[in-house]
Amino acid sequence: MLAASACGQSSTADDEKEQAPLSIDGERLLQHVEVLSSDAYQGRKSGTEGGLKARTYIEAAFDELGVQPACGDSFQQPFTFTGRLGQVDAVNLITRIPGTSGGGSIVLTAHFDHLGVFNGDIYNGADDNASGVAALLEVARSVRAAPLEHDLILAALDAEETGLLGARHLVDSACFDELDVKVNVNLDMVSRSEAGELYASGTYQYPFLKPVLEALSIRDKVTLLLGHDVPGSTRMDWSNSSDHAAFHAAGIPFVYFGVEDHAGYHNPTDDFEAITPEFFQSAVDFVYQAVRALDVAIPGFPASSSD
Prior knowledge:
Blueprint: E1 5-7, H1 12-16, H2 26-36, H3 49-65, E2 68-69, E3 76-83, E4 86-97, E5 105-111, E6 116-118, E7 121-123, H4 126-145, E8 151-157, H5 165-171, H6 174-179, E9 181-187, E10 197-201, H7 210-214, E11 223-226, H8 244-249, E12 254-258, H9 277-297, H10 303-306
Parallel strand pairs: 5-8, 5-9, 9-12, 10-11
Antiparallel strand pairs: 1-11, 2-4, 3-4, 4-8, 6-7, 10-12
Helix pairs in contact: 2-4, 3-4, 4-9
């Protein structure tokens, strides 16, 4: 059995056809990545001025979208952890776009922290994971204009690079208990692929998600591959490699969208100039369509996965 299978690939004839406009704002998408991965943000390491700057940017974007906190009266969900130099103050940012019918939520996650500065080099983390944050913000914009049936929870998470700490804190929190989460969609590295390959992981563990994704059309700049989730496969298993792992451990179905490692992964060369913009825009457009399809599919999920 192969670890990944292609689906939704466009034919040459399809490539020649003019496609419908993106469902997300592609220019805003790129602007978010350019800002968040600029040297001014100093690599966005948890507990640093650069991390605070990123948090402030995301909160301002939430305010501009007109969304409300998911729990309590603040977007902020603070927590602390012990780093190499002592206690680190970290903060998740959690907000909600109410659905039209209630009855549970989809949690869209992306971590905003990266590696900071090391030996004088700034690790800007354009793909990892300014891209996921940008996608979260622009999917949110589109959902705000056309709400889902279920609530959409937006979770910009801190301290992923330190061990998925922000995601673990969210899942262990009282706030999480209030959300009635049906599925997690996690975005981590979605902007850089010369081959135009976007992976969706999670359908091995939750096979009822596979037909939902396979039924969607995909733009001609992207090939969707299902995989990196099979234990013992020759392809690396990503089931515990990013924030979706905390949801998976809690029995919550997940889809993790990401690209394979590239030359910029955890490297100072992960800069805005190195992303592949047309792939990125098309990939995020697909993510948006997938969120909407999952929203419709939730009532058909197995009871043990949605209760």
